[in-house]
Write a structure and sequence with these properties.
By secondary structure, the chain is mostly helical. The protein has 17 helices and no strands.
Length: 424
């Protein structure tokens, strides 16, 4: 297990060198692009930090100070963590507020490194360079404990928490699938970085209490650190090399499959009441799955068009009063924003489907109804329209909308005051 972890770490170090050189080439072409500068600093920092670690005994002897190589490796890791934050901040904006946030993090980094250097200088060495354990290398495999280590772990833990928050927030805004996937990999990598921090603290405590556990705890720490670096490395560079190997096309195809799956329940509900809108017979079972996988783009377009045809056909049975009552009931339940809009739209659509299926007359106030669907309408982007209809489909199946439908009653035959009374 330990040998496998070490081999993995060597592989990650070599990969870091490759990706660092690849991004440095991009930086040479566009040296003024702040996000790329920060990314290159992060990659170079962690690459050199990883490269130092196998050579710590030789470097300490060359520099004449025990653990100085460890200190340099740790400080470079903190530089990389801070640069990763700067990269994510610059990706979301390049205004003065963003630059202030980057400067504050740079100051925090410099203060932390200064504190680490002072504590290192004031802490007596645990052994001499000519100690047999140091000369044989056994010293570097034992759990390490020193005051500066806790400053390092505190700052690194805070940095990884910031990276998780920033990458998660940016992933929700990112439009490109590969960028979104890369940011989620960065989130996962930073989370593993937090596991490394906790593992390191546990290893120190375990090494003091149970010396025999050192090998196991060291393997866990090295594994979590290596996985963290690997995920962040892949995530931060994926948008640039992913299209070269066709990952963007694969991601787009998988995205179309997922979109069709999300739209399918609403499409099926419309089909049951309005079978005439179906463009083609819907294949079922294994044949249906293969049809979706063979051409997911066509299936997604077909589902979208059929749902929109259903909206148009059902509009006479959609009640403006019901929409208003559903919105009022949703606000009382604490809903707001897109959640409220999707739930009220799903409620009106469900009522219209029920009314049409039951042969009820059209709603008397359907002409007062605003245009539906609310999201992605009026010539909006196709992706926005699909995302909105998928949100309505999810709301359509939710227990909240089912309960709301039962409380508000039919789409026709009741005025607004009666519906308000039902949900009081």
């Amino acid at each position: 297990m330990i040998s496998l972890v070490r081999d993995l770490m060597i592989g990650v170090t070599l990969t870091c060198w490759v990706m660092s050189l690849y991004k440095l080439r991009d930086l040479a072409r566009n040296p003024r692009y702040r996000p790329l500068r920060a990314l290159c600093l992060a990659l170079v920092g962690i690459t050199v930090s990883l490269t130092i670690q196998p050579f710590m005994p030789a470097l300490d002897r060359a520099l004449g100070v025990l653990d100085l190589a460890r200190l340099l490796s740790n400080c470079l890791t903190l530089v990389a963590a801070t640069a990763a934050q700067a990269f994510l901040l610059h990706m979301t904006g390049d205004d003065e507020r963003t630059r202030r946030r980057v400067r504050r993090r740079t100051v925090a980094l410099l203060v932390s490194i200064a504190a680490i250097a002072v504590l290192f200088a004031l802490t007596p060495a645990r052994a001499a360079l000519d100690d047999p354990r140091v000369a044989s290398g056994r010293y570097y495999g034992d759990p390490f404990d020193a005051p500066f280590l806790y400053v390092y772990l505190t700052y690194l833990g805070w940095s990884m928490t910031q990276v998780v928050a920033l990458a998660h927030r940016y992933a929700r805004q990112a439009g490109r699938p590969l960028l979104r996937l890369g940011l989620r990999l960065i989130v996962a990598g930073a989370a593993w970085g937090l596991v490394y921090v906790l593992g390191k603290l546990t290893a120190v405590a375990a090494g003091a209490l149970w010396p025999g556990s050192a090998l196991v705890s060291d393997a866990v720490v090295v594994f979590s650190f290596t996985v963290s670096i690997l995920l962040i490395l892949i995530g931060s560079t994926l948008p640039s090399w992913g299209p070269l190997v066709g990952l963007d096309r694969l991601g787009a195809r998988l995205g179309a499959v997922v979109d069709h799956h999300r739209l399918r329940p609403l499409q099926a509900a419309v089909h049951r009441v309005l079978p005439e809108i179906a463009l083609l017979p819907e294949p079922r079972g294994p044949a249906g799955l293969l049809a979706v996988l063979r051409d997911p783009y066509l299936r997604r377009v077909r589902a979208t068009v059929e749902i929109l045809d259903g909206y148009a056909t059902l509009r006479p049975w959609m009640s403006a009063a019901l929409l208003s009552a559903a919105e009022a009931a949703g606000r009382r339940a604490g809903w707001s924003g897109a959640r409220l809009a999707a739930a009220t739209e799903a409620t009106v659509l469900a009522a219209a489907l029920e009314a049409r299926a039951a042969g009820a007359p059209p709603a008397a106030d359907h002409e007062e109804l605003p245009d539906l669907p609310a999201g992605g309408a009026d010539g909006g982007e196709a992706a926005e329209q699909v995302a909105w209809l998928a949100r309505v489909a999810r709301a359509y199946r939710s227990p909240e909308v089912t309960r709301l439908r039962a409380e508000l009653g039919p789409a026709t035959g009741a005025d607004d005051s009666e519906r308000e009374h039902r949900v009081q």
